[in-house]
């Protein structure tokens, strides 16, 4: 599929890793210019390996790798620093971001814009910003960058601009349709959303309480749709923790 | 190893097979600390010399062994046999946290020391446990981290120094 490549000093984050053979790791890396790439970090699990403390999720790295197959070989990873470790709830939110990237983005499909949105979200998480707003902003950026054109500012049927005073029915894969017109019977799974929320989302301004609540349920429905039946483990773990 | 045993050391292979067989049939989890033991309650938990007011939570039996080696801790343990790892689908249910919570709220334990690893998963586990324990009125503490004993800043990795600065303490 891809040619043998040698990549140097690529800004990246580790999304996930799992042990491989006796002393190595397979690392799922999200890089700026190459998208999600899997690579073997040879010897990374040896007690004295210099890579041990470096290949941590949520930390900005510069990574060198080589190889032509689906799984590359990690050559070097350098910690860039400047970002405190995630702790507490922010850490659980970080896992959610990583799981979205692992499950929704394709391997070796570059999305520099998404990389930017991800770094910003991590930085805000580490800085203790309101998690609801930054998670919604990332979800929206993810869907847009991956090319699932989420229509927000126009009525999908009439083509007219969204009116902040009206209420809309949001149909996935189609867009908002003004309520009150002759739309026939309403599917109970469909989302009913105010025009103001749609415009706020289009502008990326999510702080208004109603916008935050409605965009959460709309984005959840969209993400579930594009996950195609896969469940999100980080969401399940989070819910289980609330119940204990 | 398998080829070597089959070709050169068949008696050793038998011994290994028997040991594994015996371990599989007789080992169980200690009722109190969850580590592997052949009895219902392991020797460490049954030892009256140990301080039952302290409970140290570790991920794996190897971590317990390491803390024991320091001779600096006289309390009891709880071994999680894993860590929270949302991306691998390991959550509170898979870790069997009810057993730990019951153990920590037995009325004797006064402080729970969270000694999970300083990886993201270990941190997430410690955070989750600290919240669950706080909700039940049990005091929790976390192992501190920073520059290693005898370590020189010049030869310490920058991630460790950065974190040591963030977590610095007043004297």
UniProtKB/TrEMBL annotation, chain A:
<feature type="domain" description="DNA replication/recombination mediator RecO N-terminal">
    <location>
        <begin position="10"/>
        <end position="79"/>
    </location>
</feature>
<dbReference type="Pfam" id="PF02565">
    <property type="entry name" value="RecO_C"/>
</dbReference>
<dbReference type="GO" id="GO:0043590">
    <property type="term" value="C:bacterial nucleoid"/>
</dbReference>
<comment type="function">
    <text>Involved in DNA repair and RecF pathway recombination.</text>
</comment>
<dbReference type="GO" id="GO:0006310">
    <property type="term" value="P:DNA recombination"/>
</dbReference>
<dbReference type="InterPro" id="IPR022572">
    <property type="entry name" value="DNA_rep/recomb_RecO_N"/>
</dbReference>
<dbReference type="InterPro" id="IPR042242">
    <property type="entry name" value="RecO_C"/>
</dbReference>
<keyword id="KW-0233">DNA recombination</keyword>
<comment type="similarity">
    <text>Belongs to the RecO family.</text>
</comment>
<dbReference type="InterPro" id="IPR003717">
    <property type="entry name" value="RecO"/>
</dbReference>
<protein>
    <recommendedName>
        <fullName>DNA repair protein RecO</fullName>
    </recommendedName>
</protein>
<dbReference type="Pfam" id="PF11967">
    <property type="entry name" value="RecO_N"/>
</dbReference>
<dbReference type="GO" id="GO:0006302">
    <property type="term" value="P:double-strand break repair"/>
</dbReference>
<dbReference type="InterPro" id="IPR012340">
    <property type="entry name" value="NA-bd_OB-fold"/>
</dbReference>
<dbReference type="InterPro" id="IPR037278">
    <property type="entry name" value="ARFGAP/RecO"/>
</dbReference>
<keyword id="KW-0227">DNA damage</keyword>
<keyword id="KW-0234">DNA repair</keyword>
């Amino acid at each position: 599929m891809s040619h043998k490549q040698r990549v140097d000093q690529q800004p990246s984050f580790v999304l996930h890793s799992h042990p491989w053979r006796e002393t190595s790791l397979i690392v799922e890396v999200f890089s700026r210019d190459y998208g999600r790439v899997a690579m073997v970090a040879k010897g990374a699990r040896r007690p004295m390996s210099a890579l041990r403390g470096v290949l941590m999720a949520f930390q900005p790295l510069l990574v060198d790798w080589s190889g032509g197959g689906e799984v590359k070989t990690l050559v070097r990873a350098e910690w860039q620093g400047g970002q405190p470790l995630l702790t507490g709830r922010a850490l659980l939110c970080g896992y959610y971001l990583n799981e979205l990237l692992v499950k929704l983005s394709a391997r070796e499909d570059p999305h520099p814009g998404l990389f930017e949105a991800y770094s910003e979200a991590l930085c805000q998480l580490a800085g203790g910003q309101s998690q609801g707003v930054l998670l919604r902003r990332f979800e929206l950026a993810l869907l847009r960058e991956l090319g699932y054109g989420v229509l927000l500012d126009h009525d999908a049927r009439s083509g007219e601009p969204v009116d902040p005073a009206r209420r809309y029915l949001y149909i996935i894969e189609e867009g908002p349709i003004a309520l009150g017109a002759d739309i026939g019977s309403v599917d109970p799974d469909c989302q009913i959303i105010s025009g103001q929320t749609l415009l706020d989302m289009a502008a990326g301004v999510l702080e208004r309480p109603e916008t935050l609540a409605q965009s959460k349920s709309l984005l959840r429905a969209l993400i579930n749709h594009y996950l195609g039946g896969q469940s999100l483990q980080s969401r399940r773990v989070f819910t289980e923790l609330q119940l204990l | 190893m398998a080829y070597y045993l089959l070709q050169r050391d068949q008696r050793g292979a038998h011994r290994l097979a028997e040991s594994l067989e015996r371990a599989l049939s007789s080992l169980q989890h200690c009722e109190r600390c969850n580590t592997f033991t052949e009895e219902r309650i392991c020797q460490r938990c049954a030892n009256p010399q140990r301080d039952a007011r302290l409970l140290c939570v570790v991920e794996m039996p190897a971590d317990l062994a390491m803390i024991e080696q320091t001779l600096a801790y006289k309390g009891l343990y709880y071994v999680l046999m894993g860590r929270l790892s949302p991306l691998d689908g390991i959550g509170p249910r898979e870790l069997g946290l009810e057993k730990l919570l019951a153990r920590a709220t037995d009325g004797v334990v006064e402080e729970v020391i969270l000694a999970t690893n300083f990886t993201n998963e270990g941190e997430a586990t410690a955070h989750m446990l600290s919240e669950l324990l706080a909700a039940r009125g049990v005091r929790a503490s976390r192992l501190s981290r920073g520059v290693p004993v005898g370590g020189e800043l010049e030869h310490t990795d920058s991630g460790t120094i950065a974190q040591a600065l963030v977590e610095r303490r007043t004297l």
